[in-house]
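Hi W.,

Here's what went into the run:
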Amino acid sequence: MPCRLLASTAVALVLALTGLLAVGHGQSLTGEYKVGVLEPLTGPLASEGKRHLEGYEIVRDMINERGGVMGKKLVFAVADAPDPTAAATEANRLITREGVKIITGTFSSRLCGAASEAAARHNVIYWETSCVDPRFNKRGLKNVFRTEIDATGFGWYNIEFIAKHLAPRFNLRPNQLKIAFLSEDSSYGQGVTEAARQRAKGEFGMQELGAEYYSFTAINDFTPIIVKFKQLNPDIVHHIGYTNDAPLFWRQAREQNFLFKALVHAGATGYGSPDFGKALGSDANGVFALLEPGPGFRMEALRPEGQKLEREFREAVQKKTGSYPLGGHQLAGGGLWVLKLVLDRAKSDDIEKFRSAVMSLDMPVGSSINGWGVKFAENGQNANERVQHYMLQWQGGQLVTVWPEEFSTLRAKWIPLGSWDQRK
Amino acid sequence: MDPARLLGPAEIDVLAQLGVATVLLGGIYALIAVGLTLIFGIMRVVNFAHGEFLMLGMYLAFWAFTLWSLDPYFVLVVSVPVFLLVGLASYALIMRGVIHASHNVQIFTTVGLSTALQNVALVLWTGDYRVVRPWHSFVVLRVGGIAFNLSQVVAFVIALALTIMLFAFMKWTHTGRVMRATAQDREAATLMGIDTDLVYRLTWAIGIACVGAAGVLVAPLYSVYPTAGLQFVLLSYVVVVLGGLGDMVGALLGSLIVAAVEVAGSYYFGTAWKEVLYFVLFIAVLVFRPAGLFGQRGAETLGA
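Here's what came out:
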């Protein structure tokens, strides 16, 4: 009995203290405003989901220090969505039991569709910060918004980089470039690759030598593709890879002494994942991956308000995790900050008022976290040109920011890529 | 196509490289398939958890390399007794209870075991993609215009040796004869005084030891993660069906055929087609030669 008494006293004490702290933090805040956060916290996507949640929590605290949302303290109702079924049921639970009017999440393209459908049925706002499925905004739903670009935006940026940065450095015109496309065949890989192929051909007249798709769950050998590509002799290999196949392709390309001028990837999987560097060490050198800004990011290039925000965000991430912000932190954190801006403007979670606030936001690149700007289209998608993305390159075991050059202190190396043993 | 171009030195190099790729990839598939065909042939159990035992072997190689810098080839020697024990334990705890049950029950049991093992790996070691990079995984042998990865060559040689050893064991040892007798007619074998439970236990343990060793050998070539087994396991069913149930040499030849279809299909038609091609082959074999390309007619019903 004394034991239980002690325990309940301790609990009461903790509750009282946290209550006090909360009051001390945001004196002017009256009441709480609850937002539903849906992330895969268990299952195969758990590590990404947890990183996203961490990003949300860091920016939530930043928001509360600056007066919360609509004068209230921002709090989360967190739910676990390891798969699409759970995403839908948990979205329902957040709406009916927790009474939230806004749900945000979900990292994966597998989850955002199901979760946002559920939200749409209840006329609840669905604020996506990271899934990149191009279909997300093409369902005519009035309640869905996405702060991150979609997979087609990744393809758009990759070709932008190839045409405007790589081509001049090879002393070639964009229409002289020969590209071979290789991609895993999920909606992500296909979305990026199809968008890149269209823009490369349509806008810049680049020469497509071939396009190969494969399933990343069933690829055990890239030799036949590499042998084929070697005969085609491309300048650029545009490869959207997943986590197990990207190191396999790179290792086998080295074995086969497959030489090309550059390899360009997009996204946090495959070549964009820290696992790639771990797998290949300095052999990873030279690969490009389109991502959020990493080491070398020149914050001075942002607008003053963006700089201040970015610094504060980076310090908070450093303090909480001991590391440089990772992609998950940046997508979730950057997206939540835009939600705050919308709520400040709408002063309501009524869907009509919220929607018109979203549409009226117009901020240039460099205004917010990650150097992002804001300009939403009617379908609820933030514009490619505003959601600034950055080309990172593997250099000495690290992914560093190299493009756009005004945003980076570091420069792309190994252009064109030399022989395999000369990339140290 | 102009025949002179077809036979130019560049084309010969391409064909030779594709041939080498086929043989080396076939070696990996054979390594994984021999254990499956053994269990399949003798116990008549489709082990859907086969890929997960492969994954456990990969993790064994990973942790031994990461924690104690042990080379996978040394771990290979240790892995055989370790996985014999894993096999004996999993038989005693799980398979023993369902070995006389219907095929459906066995399928549900091994599928359940597969998912359970994946999730155990996920909980224990997270979903991260790990890599094992011993010195030999970087060594590339070059002969003319053709490249061979040393780890892959070793895996192929061991696959070949393992197949021959298992084949000899089944054919010429007393235990092997007992195992074959059990496979042919369980009841008659029991009447002859054979302890069929012991035979099943042994078969299961040897099968698991083979796939565990295969996991150790493929770890330097592929990423290690909880669902790594799924990458190979579907293929090994194709191999086993092609080769004929329980036929070791058939498994080796089946592996080479699947690898050839995969490599040639990827090169000539595009990678997207490779699964279509070998599953068409798989279905064709089931329809026209249900005992497998090299299996004895009627073998699929033996011991049922």
